[in-house]
Design goal:
Radius of gyration of chain B: 18 Å
Shape of chain B: globular
Order of helices and strands of chain C: EHEEEEEEE
Structural class of chain C: mainly beta
Structural class of chain B: alpha/beta
Helix content of chain C: under 10%
Number of helices of chain B: 5
CATH class of the largest domain in chain B: Alpha Beta
Number of strands of chain B: 12
Order of helices and strands of chain B: EEEEEHEEHEHEEHEHE
Oligomer: heterotrimer
CATH architecture of the largest domain in chain B: 3-Layer(aba) Sandwich
Chains: A mainly beta (202), B alpha/beta (249), C mainly beta (91)
Chain lengths: 202, 249, 91
């Protein structure tokens, strides 16, 4: 029998449309910063994003080259496995469809995203193409703060937000699926918030 | 180096708020009466768990700011703007309310008089809470370990435990208390000014030759600066214990 | 690199009780990357989707504690050894 604390409510938003809140989530107006390690500080002139495929072909962009790619502003809901959700967040980024345009051979492949600082996360290629994922460099109209993953982070809003790797610097495409950081420590390999796929075995 | 003992599972206990003391306009000391409390060592903390009616839970850790005294547990809580738990504890909690706590927790950041000294306590903001437990233990037990206590606060009105510290000093104990005010100072201020820095630590911390036991507590940035500087000044890393709260919001 | 987001191993003392059933912050672990042995209370801890303990000397991941619906999973990343004191007497 849980002990209820008189008068405690927490800081959740309660007037939210239920169909926008996945099971077990609470809506917040904050933007919590959760990181597995220290915040890397990457000068823009050193920043690179590199796509490597299984044949070892590489394509790399400097920040200037990346900024020259077509970008769009998207408004999405984001859901963190630690149970907070944030609705109508606005980001500007380059679609992975644009970046993967030259790597068209991998309809059933996998991508392992890597970040400055060593973080990794794995995603099926299917989940990052078709307008589902971006490399985001602005949040709410402002350049992305390092604490929230700046200069650029992956944005994949249809999955739990640990998949939206902060400080992203590349992706390795392959036919085999290798678990990333949280996936190898006990979180779910796929992470669909609507099926509440939080943990390994869910 | 045991806690009260080496316990088995830590259980959640229900504590009742016995008293709430206003330390500053943003800081309260909350006295909890906790049946079944096993006692604790200076520096240990408790976890508190708050549960809303729909089952939503939040859990936080708070240092115990007074030494063991029967079933009484005192915590000192600072209001964090936009926080989730501290606004409840500071603005909503009433004498007679009950909350779930567990503890005592933590064997690393602990000082008892038997460990000797000299003792150097350095606290930033509400980081002085566990240090106050240590200092109060030293005074209450009649220990003769010499103590230097340095606290950093934004302004005079933000100094926590100021009056009690003055009263300890007036009793002629071998305790030195220094406060530094970082943002504003009253016109007649005779204490220190500005952030804790290398010069202040070099001048006011026990000399390295005395091999002090140093306890540093506060926001992470503060603790990083102080602990690193103490090592640079020649203090032994193994005799410096830190407790970092995380970022100041 | 300024990094104010971490806390100490102390902050996990309660979690350690849940996982190990005992006080752990004054126990030591050795990093297999740099060889340094440190008290768990001195580890740099990042609290995110799980709790990540990093070696205070080289930053390698020593331990990761992840809760799930019915338990807690402990991974020992770069921890070569963890030593547990076994005294019943108070010191």
């Amino acid at each position: 029998m849980t002990f209820i604390t008189r008068g405690f409510r927490g800081r959740r938003e309660v007037d939210v449309p239920a169909d926008r809140v996945p099971p077990g989530q609470y809506v917040t107006s904050d933007f919590p910063v959760l990181s597995a390690g220290p915040t890397p500080r990457i000068p823009l002139e050193q920043w690179r994003f590199t796509i490597t495929d299984s044949l070892r072909s590489e394509r790399s962009w400097t920040w200037t080259e990346f900024m020259a790619l077509p970008a769009k502003t998207v408004t999405v809901d984001i859901h963190c496995v630690t149970k907070w959700s944030k609705l109508d967040t606005s980001w500007e980024g380059v679609s992975l469809d644009t970046m993967l345009a030259d790597f068209t051979d991998h309809a059933n492949g996998h991508g392992l995203f890597q970040s400055y600082g060593g973080y990794t996360t794995n995603l099926p290629l299917e989940d990052i193409i078709g307008g589902k994922a971006w490399i985001a460099f602005k949040y709410d109209g402002q350049p992305l703060d390092p604490e929230h993953g700046g200069p650029a982070r992956l944005l994949v809003p249809h999955l739990y937000f640990w998949k939206s790797a902060k400080w992203v610097n590349g992706v390795t495409l392959s036919d085999s699926d290798r678990p990333g950081f949280w996936e190898s420590y006990g979180y779910h390999n796929y992470g669909d918030p609507w099926r509440e796929q939080r943990y390994q075995g869910d | 180096m045991a806690g009260a003992a080496l316990p088995g599972r830590l259980n959640w206990l229900i504590a009742k708020v016995g008293d709430i003391a206003e330390e500053t306009d943003r800081v309260r000391s909350i006295v909890l009466d906790c049946p079944g409390w096993p006692g604790h060592l200076p520096g240990q903390h408790i976890d508190i768990r708050l549960t809303a009616e729909d089952g939503y839970q939040a859990q936080r850790s708070y240092s115990i700011s007074a030494p063991a005294d029967g079933e009484q547990v005192v915590i000192t809580v600072e209001l964090v703007d936009d926080g989730e738990v501290s606004p409840f504890l500071i603005e909503d909690l009433r004498v007679g309310d009950q909350i779930e706590i567990r503890g005592p927790i933590g064997g690393y950041f602990v000082w008892e008089p038997s460990r000797g000294g000299p003792l150097q306590l350095i606290g930033g903001g509400s980081g002085v809470a566990p240090l106050m437990a240590m200092l109060r233990a030293r005074v209450r037990t009649g220990s003769d370990v010499p103590v230097r206590y340095l606290s950093s606060a934004r302004s005079f009105d933000d100094l926590i435990y100021r009056l009690e510290l003055e009263s300890i000093l007036s009793e002629g104990e071998e305790v030195e208390v220094l406060h530094t005010l970082t943002r504003s100072q009253p016109p007649d201020w005779t204490g220190l000014t500005g952030r804790v820095n290398r010069e202040m630590l070099a001048r006011h911390v026990w000399p390295t030759s005395t091999r002090p036991l140093c306890y540093v507590c506060g926001p992470t940035g503060f603790v990083e600066t102080v602990a690193t500087t103490l090592v640079t000044l020649g203090h032994e890393p193994g005799r410096i214990k830190t407790e970092r709260f995380g970022p100041t919001k | 690199m300024d990094d104010e987001r971490h806390v100490d191993g102390n902050a996990l003392a309660g979690v350690f009780h849940d996982v190990f059933g005992r006080e752990m912050t004054h126990e030591s672990g050795c990093c297999s990357e740099c060889g340094a042995a440190n008290l768990l209370g001195a580890a740099r801890v990042y609290r995110a989707a799980g709790d990540v303990l990093r070696c205070p000397d080289c930053g390698s991941v020593l331990m990761v504690i992840v809760p799930d619906a019915s338990g807690m999973r402990v991974s020992f990343g770069s921890m070569r050894w963890l030593r547990l004191s076994m005294s019943n007497a108070r010191e």
